[in-house]
Amino acid sequence: MSEQARKTAEALEYLTGFGNEHSSEAVPGALPIGRNSPQRAPLGLYAEQLSGSAFTEPRTHNRRSWLYRIRPSAAHPPFTRIDNGALRSAPFTESVADPNRLRWNPLPDPAPGTDFLAGLWTLGGNGDAAQRAGMAIHLYAANADMTDRVFSDSDGELLIVPERGGLLLHTELGLLAARPGDMALIPRGVRFRVELLDADARGYICENYGQPFELPNLGPIGANGLAAARDFQAPVAAYEDIERPTEVINKFCGNLWSATYDHSPLDVVAWHGSHVPYVYDMRRFNVLGSISYDHPDPSIFTVLTSPSDTPGLAGVDFVVFAPRWLVGEDTFRPPYFHRNVMSEYMGLIEGAYDAKAEGFVPGGGSLHNMMSAHGPDHETFERASAAELKPQKIDDGLAFMFETRWPITATAQAAGADHLQRGYDDVWQGLQRHFRA
Ligand SMILES: [Fe+2]
């Protein structure tokens, strides 16, 4: 967490737009024009295509980037297995899926010297990493920079939601800064290392094994609304020309593998394409809702969706509960009681969430699995049922949800954690009988 990192983060420039065919060069003339793989790439660079989708997928889903780098990625020694630490992957077979509503306090602070990778801790997930279907929920807590080591995830893309402390993400395609209130995405296979912008860092990660996240269709909403494509920021090319041993750690089919290169593989001088990391400021989300009565289903708050083979059924949705006005007449305004075929993991970045008066804290999280009954707690229900329905601004918190089509199985470490809140069911105790025939 150096002053230099902070200055670098402040000065970053970005390319804007979601899913664009971006291009960038850190050295003028490094990017070939008119072809991808000339007989000799400019400036003595090696050309390499990084494919995030099958070659033949439709254009709307196709993701690939061409990288022009100092050394080809192929030049590396063998990878060998290393300990997975607290990282787990689907299929999650070490414990059974639990229909109970679960809630956790934040992770305990990590030991000194814990970097982003060492600080990953898996809460649970679903699907199968090797089948490229499903997702995992990880938390991270770090207090040290990743120095002379980089990480890549062959199993999926990483949607990172900082809750405490900023991150400077050094990726193959350039640098991104992600602070609380932002979300960052590292595509499948893109190597990166994490430098901290503050003394420590904590947050959430959705590892998406399935189709890459995309913007949801807007239907009758029209051409604008929710997350705007122009607010997604991709890095400009930046490279490291470092010739000293660098450990490259790859997550592959659930396990960590390590190889020590004799140079930094973050050596891409120019690139173009659509398989790119990006950062998005969730405070820019255009929140839509009812201006008459009731409120829409929370799908109206979807930032990004990973589609499945069934139209409208997401492998995982990333949903944000951002500041907004509530104006519904004759309406119970907090989230309603419900039981959902989808499974919901919620986290809190700051403040409070309007369905839970207390106990749901920044850095913590709740899991409401398939068909589990949930909704406002007793105190919230009583307050909202009696509230005067004048226009009300909800502006004291920023919460999010990973909503997924399959039940989430908690890992053994999450199911048995000291920071699991025993007695979470109690928040729905005290809901009085009001029925009068
Ligand atoms: Fe829910």
List the defining traits of the structure above:
7-stranded antiparallel β-sheet, 3 helices, Jelly Rolls, metal-binding, binds fe (ii) ion, mainly beta, 2 domains, HgmA_N, 6-stranded antiparallel β-sheet, Homogentis_dOase_bac, 36% strand, 437 residues
C-alpha Rg (nearest Å): 22 Å
Compute the separation of the termini in Å. 64 Å
Which small-molecule ligands are present, each listed once?
fe (ii) ion
Q: What general outline do the C-alpha atoms trace? A: globular
In terms of per-residue confidence, which ranges show pLDDT below 50 for 5 or more consecutive residues? none
Overall pLDDT confidence: 96
User: CATH superfamily name of the largest domain?
Assistant: Jelly Rolls
How many individual β-strands? 30
* Sheet/helix structural class: mainly beta
Number of helices: 3
What is the strand arrangement across the widest sheet? 20-13-10-15-8-7-30
The CATH architecture name of the largest domain reads Sandwich
Number of domains: 2
Fold-level CATH name of the largest domain: Jelly Rolls
Helix content: under 10%
Largest sheet: 7 strands, antiparallel
Q: In the CATH hierarchy, what is the class of the largest domain?
A: Mainly Beta
Strand content: 35-45%
Cofactor: Fe cation
Catalytic activity: homogentisate + O2 = 4-maleylacetoacetate + H(+)
Binding site for homogentisate: 374
Keywords: Dioxygenase, Iron, Metal-binding, Oxidoreductase, Phenylalanine catabolism, Tyrosine catabolism
